[in-house]
Write a structure and sequence with these properties.
By secondary structure, the protein is an alpha+beta fold. It has one domain: Structural Genomics Hypothetical 15.5 Kd Protein In mrcA-pckA Intergenic Region, Chain A, CATH 3.10.290. Helix content is 23%, strand content 30%. Strands 2-1-3-4-5 form a five-stranded antiparallel beta sheet. The chain is globular and about 35 Å long.
Length: 87
């Protein structure tokens, strides 16, 4: 599944267009490598996402094409979440 679609379906980022923009700015790493919005992701991959002053690392547990809001959090688990001191 494409990175931007995974971020939308899992509800980490609400809109696919926003996920595409963030990825194309180089603010997302897949397995510690810079990723574009079209990068393919699979179960077991680790994503590091930089949102302003917050950096979140998540591990993909499963890939599902469509999901309900209540089931979206089962697609990933948060490994680390850090905040920048001087933003």
């Amino acid at each position: 599944m494409r990175l931007d679609k995974f971020l939308k379906v899992s509800r980490i980022i609400k809109r696919r267009s926003v996920a595409k923009e963030i990825a194309d700015q180089g603010r997302i790493l897949v397995n510690n490598l810079p990723a574009k919005s079209s990068t393919k992701v699979k179960a077991g991959d680790t994503l590091t996402i930089k949102f302003g002053n917050k950096t979140e690392t998540v591990k993909i547990n499963q890939i599902v094409e469509t999901t309900k809001k209540s089931e979206a959090e089962e697609m990933y688990e948060i490994v680390d979440e850090t905040y920048a001191e001087n933003f």
